Structure formats: structure tokens, C-alpha cells
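Running this now, will post back.
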Amino acid sequence: MSRLKSCLEAIKTEGRAALIPYIAAGHPSAELTVPLLHALARAGADVIELGIPFSDPMADGPAIQRASEAAIANGVGLQQVLEMATLFRRDDPTTPVVLMGYANPIERFGTIRFADAVLGAGVDGVLVVDYPPEESTTLARALLERGVDPIFMLAPTTTKERIGLIAEHASGYVYYVSLKGTTGAGHLDSAAVAERLPELRRQVQVPIAVGFGIRDRAAVRAVAAVADAVVIGSRIIEELENATREAAVASVETLVRGFREALDAPSALLSEHT
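Update: finished.
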């Protein structure tokens, strides 16, 4: 069983939701990325999503777009992201890391070469936003052969037929996009998420992580009551944008620790679906 699957299974046994923070590699600087990864782990992250900078991040809102642009300007690409993951894994052998990005950098790098590289870097999962199951067979197979989980996305508009197709290929967890829009939107409808998830669970056997639009402790608690994991990205990026370089790591650690506390509050405990 992969490190990611083992982590999520243990969390399920504990009857709680997982906390999955996201940062963009190379933002606000290449030098701060590994310290930020360690800060997220210290703050209580169960899994960390590390974004691969890309020039056209179509699913991402303004904050993550700005972060990608800054990272590219800082000279960070896929090779540097892999090196950052390797450095983090050297000192943290337990916290699962999922790379999140787009197909273009991976295809330029080489699919099989990429699968070998993520294994060597200690990466546990890969989520490619613009790779539907039909077009990711080669990568998904290569990752699974190396014990790395291919992760797919579901949306409010995903049909029952496509849910079934994704469920056949998903490993580790699936990422449910909580709203129709890009990351960072401020109109999370937790009631709609709660209504949608039981339908998804009838077809999807892996844990369901919910992201997009989760910006505060109240939203964290609401989503944790119905989902297996809560993903927070844009809010963390904004914290980094507003912090000085000297305070960036401490500010993010404080923010994420607050989310962890909200997640672990009694009313946020999961119920029968765990």
C-alpha cells in the first residue's frame, strides 16, 4: 500500500477528515519552498499538494495564476519541483506529497521519465488537471507500476457515466471541485457539496477530497463534516503574497495550524460515511 493510501486509511480509522494544503513550488521564491513544505507538515498537514508552475493554469484563479507566474520568473520548472520534493523527503519520510499540475510540462519532460523521477523524488501521487482518464492511460499505468497514485478530478457537472470511468482509474483519492469556477472563488456552497457527495460515494471507492472556495475555518468545518479531506490553496497563496519574505513561513504555519484546529474540533468529526 502506498504512503498516501496508508495515510488516508489511518485517518479514516480515526474518524476525521484529512487536511491537504496546497502551495505553488517556487512561490514566493525557490529558496522558501522546502521550508514552507516543512512548515505545512508541522502545522498538521496530512497530505501536501505541491503545484508545478505552468504558464496557462486554466483551472486556477487569480492567486494561483500569480503564484505560477512568479515561480516561472524565479526560474522554477518541473525539474526544480522534483528537486524540491527530493529535499523535503530527505528530512520528512512520512508526509505524503502530491504533485499537481498540467499535461504540457510532463509531456515535454517525457511520461516514463517523469514517472521514474517522481518515484525517485519520493512523491506519492500526481494530479494532472487537464488529463482525463481516456488520455492518461500511459501515465497512470506507469505511476501505478511504481507505487505512485494517479489522482483525478470530479466536478459538479460530471455525469454519472464519467464518474464511473474516473472511479475505475482513480487511486489515492479523487479531488472534487466544489463549485463551477476556478480556484479561490468565494462562493462555496457546503450544502450543495453535502448533497452531491453521497451520489459520488456510490461509485467512487477511494477517499473524496473537496477543494476550491475553502477560505476560512467555518468552510473547513462544513466541508470536513461530509468529505474525507479538505484542500486549501488560494487562501494560503494569498497569505504568502501579503507576508514579508522573513515572515512568510511563520505566517503560513500559523494559518494552516488554525485550519487544523478547526478541522479537529468536535463538530467537524466525520460521521457514518467514514
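Confidence is low (pLDDT under 50) at residues 181-185, 268-274. More later if anyone needs it.
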